[in-house]
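It is worth pausing here to work through a concrete case rather than discussing structure prediction in the abstract. The textbook approach is simple: state the sequence, then state the predicted structure, then interpret. We follow exactly that order.
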Amino acid sequence: MSAVAKTSDQAGSAATHPLRPISYSDPAVSVERRDDGTIYLRPVNTIGDYPTRVTDYLHHWAKETPDRVFMAERGDDDGWREVTYAQMLDATRRIASGLLARNLSPERPIVILSGNSVDHALVAFGALYAGIPFAPVSPAYSLVSKDYGKLNYLMKLLTPGLVFVDDGDAFADAIRLNVPADVEVVVSNGALADRGGTTLSELLRTPEAADLDAVNQAIGPDTIAKFLLTSGSTGNPKAVINTQRMMCANQIMLRDTLAFLKDEPPVIIDWLPWNHTFGGNHNIGLTLFNGGSMYLDEGKPTPAGIAETIRNLREISPTVYFNVPKGYESLLPYLREDAQLREKFFSRLHAMFFSGAALSTYVWNSLDELSVQTTSKRVPMLTGLGATETSPFFMCVTPLTSRSGHVGLPVSGNDAKLVPNNGKMEVRAKGPNVTPGYWRQPDLTAKAFDEEGYYIFGDALKAVDPEDFAAGFDFDGRISEDFKLGSGTWVSVGPLRARFVGTCAPLVRDVVIAGINRDELAALVVLDLDGCRVINPDLPPGDLVAAAHDPMVRDAFRERLGRFMASATGSSTRIAKAVLLDTPLSIDKGEVTDKGSLNQRAVLEHRVALIDDIYAGEVRAKVISV
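Step two, the predicted structure:
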């Protein structure tokens, strides 16, 4: 083990080093301005041809590179269980044949309750090949939730004809209480107490159906490929219809933009959940369409889960790496301390990509420093703007413009519409990658689109240069999160949250801004436990209560809050009081999604008493004030 001499406090020196060169498309757009202030952005480059079916590329690579690994996961012997393109196609056709015999359809789709695995992929590709929609559901709804509220709701919304789980023992209770007795359950391993089930091995032994090729060829652009569930951060999850056209077009958009993917088959090591569009559409599709190899990472960006990620990265050198900001934060200390791990990670890495939240400057600069130390060049960090409803790729930065908070310009095939809204510009999207709507929820579908058929994101953007849109756009927060103080002053929550988290790094993972109809703002702070242990290494790992009440952590946070206060420009940016949350956010109450995204509105609704404490006349012991 060897320590890096430079620290993030010296960050900025890496910016003088050149970027590792990668192929990237021109993001030029044409601009149309309307008298009412509406602005239309249309990419100059048109989208290339895209296939009719996702599985067309499975056929292509099974013929061109039959022995190349398509997907791999850790096996029982600690090695890798590898599935080649030829093996995946063979298994896909057999499973598809078995599914066709079960009278499944959009009205009776397949629901996958378990997380990422090769077996999950086999069932999903079998469904895609047979033209039967499937819905991957967050395992947290079965294994973490205490009341099964969202799982029960989804079963009634989707009315599945078949349910798949990889571990019958782990999911037995969730199935018993939420899956109707007449719905077939397929399992990889384990047993379902008091209930019969079909094993995946039985499906894999299905002889190929005589009409399989005809059924596959009958799949068209509008055929529903899957239902992807929204996080349910503003109520119950919605089932976003994902068509074959959406998924195929979006992958060509992605490949045309990230042109380096065509230079070398990508190798990725990935944990991002397939029940979300980033992992399940973006990353699986990117691997398949470019003939790459995906290694499944069973680790997570948590104190308990990061060790598995590190073990995998010691064996697999990615060519492109995807993660959420918390994942990069968790990875950073290991890269800093271990020269061999750094070399393995950066040796053939063309680019990194993050999504889901803003990446702190502290982490970004530190990764730049480490990549320069290892390769003498900065590895580009990329991001953009997308949604489940856009498959998700919609806007993207370039290597030269990329920075925290910047989302770039719409990619080929996507038109963006910017509409004035309370002093901000609300963004909307149109393209072949945009969903036709929500399954069995026509009222919500109608509300999601404007009169011109543009999907309404609910996000605001701000031009980097109002006189030159070629400079791209910055994220300007969620429209629904903004509120007024008692004085009538508007608070732009998104940018304020990002600046607060950045100033308070590495202690703070996220923050909820309170102050609706109040005289001043306050903060409910979600601590980053790894960052807290940077301040006090003696803190027990994973102990939220200990971290929130630790004097060293509180003093360090108070100092950062003072710095934040000193940079305030008025009441809408001044946060004088804060509470470090010592109870975890609740997935059942909708305070946090299964991927860790915070729901500001739900936290404010469920923590009213705590907010009243913050605004009480005297300073309570738990409140940190400046």
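Step three, interpretation. The radius of gyration is 24 Å. The mean pLDDT is 92.
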